[in-house]
Design goal:
236 residues; mainly alpha; 4-stranded mixed sheet; 4 helices; rod-shaped
Length: 236
């Protein structure tokens, strides 16, 4: 194997690691997003449950107000009834008091229903809150893991890029430019092993002349299909 190809193989090994680390880093925001999305539905459920409790409280207050208004009216009617001297008016006021009294009873029944409902709604709100807290704990753990993975990957990346720069400095400038171009174009490699007559970079059969050249030549040989430098793994 030509010595410059050996250099490129070492360089490629680092580049492939760097590529994997970069892909991993690029995936992390989506991982974070996915973890946070788990909270969205449950946060909304807690908010809706709280709103239901509040609406019920408003409805109860409203009923209390209606009861109070009627009770005040009843008190006034009773005073009027006590003060009147007309029999007809006395009777009419008595009927009205009775009518308001019935309304109060009906409103108090309604209030009782809402009070029972309030207990259920509060319990539901508390249960939803506990579910959210449990999910929050899981998500916090996931986020912490992602953050520590990110720190680790970034440190590794910096280290590999340092090593890569050192290796690249030893490669002929033009050859390095060609290598970089092929690696960029192909995405994953610029140097590929030949497996029989097949290039492992593109999995296509190469010409017998290419096979022959890769076996004996001391110069660099390229795959006619994908352009990657090809070589035969030397037997130990
Ligand atoms: Zn190829």
């Amino acid at each position: 194997m030509p010595p410059e190809l050996e250099q490129l193989l070492v360089l490629q090994d680092k580049d492939q690691h760097i590529r994997k680390l970069k892909l991993d880093l690029r995936r992390m925001p989506a991982d974070k997003e996915r973890a946070l999305n788990k909270l969205a539905g449950e946060t909304e459920a807690v908010r809706a449950a709280k709103e239901a409790v509040q609406l019920n409280e408003v409805a109860m207050k409203n009923l209390e107000l209606q009861i109070k208004t009627r009770q005040d009216t009843i008190t006034k009617l009773k005073v009027q009834q006590y003060e009147t001297r007309k029999n007809e008016e006395f009777k009419a006021l008595g009927h009205e008091t009775e009518r308001y009294g019935k309304e109060v009873t009906k409103l108090e029944d309604d209030e009782l229903v809402l009070m029972e409902k309030a207990e259920l709604l509060k319990a539901e709100h508390a249960a939803k809150g506990r579910t959210l807290a449990a999910t929050q704990a899981v998500v916090d753990e996931e986020l912490a893991l992602i953050a520590s993975r990110q720190t680790h990957v970034m440190a590794q990346l910096a280290e590999f890029e340092g090593i890569r720069a050192g290796l690249a400095g030893k490669v002929d400038e033009d050859l390095l430019a060609t290598y970089d171009r092929i690696f960029q174009n192909r995405g994953d490699s610029a140097v590929a092993e030949l497996n029989g007559q097949v290039c492992r970079g593109c999995n296509m059969k190469v010409t017998p002349a290419t096979v022959q050249a890769a076996k004996v030549d001391k110069t660099l040989v390229s795959c006619p299909n994908c352009g990657r430098f090809v070589y035969y793994a030397e037997l130990p």
